[in-house]
Amino acid sequence: MTSYRQEQLDGYRLVLDHLDTLGAEERQALQKAISPYLDFRKRASEFLDTHFAGVCTQACYDNQRSACCSKDGIVTFFADIVVNALVSDPVSMEKIMARLGQQPHEGFKCIYLGPRGCLWQVKPLVCEMFLCDPALSEVFGSRSDLNTEWEALQQEKKRFSWPDRPVLFDHLEAVFIEAGLNSSLMYLHNSPGLLRVKRLAGLYDPTVGRQ
Ligand code: SF4
Fold first, then answer.
1. DSSP string over 32-62
2. In 44-107, which ranges are E strands?
3. In sequence order, what are the beta bridge partners of 117?
């Protein structure tokens, strides 16, 4: 098993095991916390479906040319896993865990790519918000209004994931850290670059350590 897949598997196990221990109130608190993010993701998804589905299906999926879903290449945040686990039914989770545990994975595409598309119910944020340059120029070429709308969604994304202010992705990691859990996917608590962003925003003091 690749280190990438092991890391994903460990992350999912940790999240699922901990969610299983939570009472109804704690789980509801998490559901409430992610609700504005799910609303954002719904609007982003609708925008992409409306304006890019045709372009992307023809250019990448039909021709097997896609570089978006490449093997072991996709960055997943810890919060991506928490959100997906919270919104998924047990069958969907079993499919993901079975795929991660499958031996060997010979394909050249992402481990999460199933025959009917991505196995995630709410796919990782970087996947959702990635558009290649040819698609961007084809759709936005004569539609600056759509470009403006997409830029607004990109800015909104930061309000959940870019820690120059208190953000959901940081909060979800903190919830698990407070429970004594740790994952290498907790980038908002591990990544030097993101810790620097937090430090500059006054949200992290390296002399105190993890916050
Ligand atoms: S997680 Fe899903 S959308 Fe992202 S690269 Fe993998 S299959 Fe594609």
1. HHHHHHHHHHHHHHHHHHHHHHHHHIIIIIT
2. none
3. 114
Residue 70's DSSP bridge partners are 109
The finding on whether 118 has its CB within 6 A of some atom of ligand 1 is yes
* Residue 117 phi, psi dihedral angles, 5° rounding: 105, -165
In this prediction the pTM is 0.93
Query: Rounded CA gap, 121 and 115, in Å?
Result: 15
Q: Is the CB of 81 under 6 A from ligand 1?
A: no
Cα of 113 from ligand 1 centre, angstroms: 6
- Pocket lining: 9 vs ligand 1, CB cutoff 6 Å: no
Amino acid code (one letter) for 157: K
The mean pLDDT value for 95-107 works out to 83
Q: What's the CA gap between 211 and 203, in Å, rounded?
A: 8
Cis peptide before 90 (omega within 30 of 0): no
- Domain residues of the chain, as ranges? 3-145
What's the alpha-carbon Rg for the chain, to the nearest Å?
18
At 116 the pLDDT is: 84
Q: How far is CA 6 from CA 16, 48, 99, in A?
A: 15, 31, 12
Number of H helices, E strands in the chain: 10, 2
